[in-house]
Write a structure and sequence with these properties.
The protein contains 5 helices and 14 strands. It has 304 residues and is an alpha/beta fold. It has one domain: Ribonuclease Z/Hydroxyacylglutathione hydrolase-like (Metallo-beta-lactamase, Chain A, 4-Layer Sandwich), CATH 3.60.15.10. Helix 4 packs parallel to helix 5. The longest helix is centred in the C-terminal third of the chain and has 17 residues. The protein starts with a strand and ends in a 13-residue tail after the last strand.
């Protein structure tokens, strides 16, 4: 399983010299399975660069959307494969059942918010609202879990060839009011995962004004990874105001946290161009390799 990061920011693209190292594109992660199939998690602005790469192949593509907020769909109109005649694209919308006819990722392609209308897209797009059922019976197991996020949405867990991968973004581990999924349920959902990608947009200093906005504290995500005993934690969906230097500070703090708990969890702060390779072992742990390196920046002092 190859996992490549094309967009790692949350809320809004954040280009500029302070964020160029880790990257300023919004959410998009490409996963190529052992059998060659391609899964794309979210369609933020990062999907534009991914689309250029995927033009070289003709395989069907599956886009798994966590939800339809703009930073997770705004790149789809610039996704080149969508304009290839007869290209097969499966879009898993993760919408509530009562919204099953919603256009999801293509809602902005209406001639008003985007110059081209949906009717001019020549690819063969198929909408799926129940991916757990759609992929049942194949050598791939997909589970979903409801996000604690305004408007709802779903996290995903994939298991293939002895590798477990969890993608949990735009999730507030301790939201005010009702929990769609409790903390203990999240622990069980990601327990023992080889790779956990989790929303880590906020520090404690970002609240109280942002409590209930649907994102987790970095400290909460560290604790989740520790309690669930995952093998690799990828901190993701960075705040658009979080600089490269501040993200380097986050990496050092997280590594220190796991050392203090005598845990060997691999820590990665997601950056554009990061590649994770997981080789499944049917009798034993998966072999994990991290390719690429974060930008060489000096950690900034930041509020804890």
């Amino acid at each position: 399983m190859f996992i490549t990061f094309y967009g790692v920011r949350g809320s809004i693209p954040s280009p500029g010299p302070a964020t160029a190292g880790y990257g300023g594109n919004t959410s998009c992660v490409h996963v190529q399975l052992a059998d060659g199939r391609h899964f794309i998690f979210d369609a933020g602005t990062g999907i534009r660069a991914l689309g250029k790469r995927l033009m070289e192949i003709s395989d069907p593509l599956t886009v798994l959307l966590t939800h339809s907020h703009w930073d997770h769909i705004q790149g789809f109109p610039f996704f080149a494969p969508a304009f290839q005649p007869d290209r097969e694209i499966i879009v898993c919308q993760s919408l509530p059942r009562e919204d099953a006819t919603h256009m999801g990722a293509l809602q902005q392609m209406n001639g008003h918010n985007f110059p081209l209308d949906l009717s001019r897209v020549p690819s063969r797009i198929r909408y799926v609202n129940e991916p757990t059922t759609f992929f049942r019976g194949e050598d791939l197991h997909i589970e979903r879990k409801a996000l604690n996020h305004p408007g709802g949405g779903f996290a995903y867990k994939l298991q293939e060839d002895g590798v477990t991968f969890a993608y949990v973004t735009d999730n507030e581990l301790d939201p005010p009011g009702r929990h769609a999924t409790t903390y203990d349920q999240w622990v069980e959902f990601v327990r023992g995962a080889d790779i956990l990608i989790h929303d880590s947009q906020y520090r404690e200093s970002d609240v109280p004004q942002k409590h209930g906005w649907g994102h987790s504290f970095i400290s909460q995500v560290r604790q989740l990874a520790s309690d669930a005993q995952v093998r690799c934690l990828v901190l993701y969906h960075h705040d658009p105001d979080r600089s490269d230097a501040e993200l380097e500070e986050v990496r050092l703090e997280t590594e220190a946290f796991f050392r203090s708990h005598k845990q060997t969890i691999v820590t990665v702060v997601a950056f554009e161009g990061l590649v994770l390779e997981a080789l499944g072992q049917r009798s034993g742990d998966a072999v994990l390799e991290v390719r690429g390196s974060p930008p060489k920046v000096k950690a900034a002092r930041s509020s804890k």
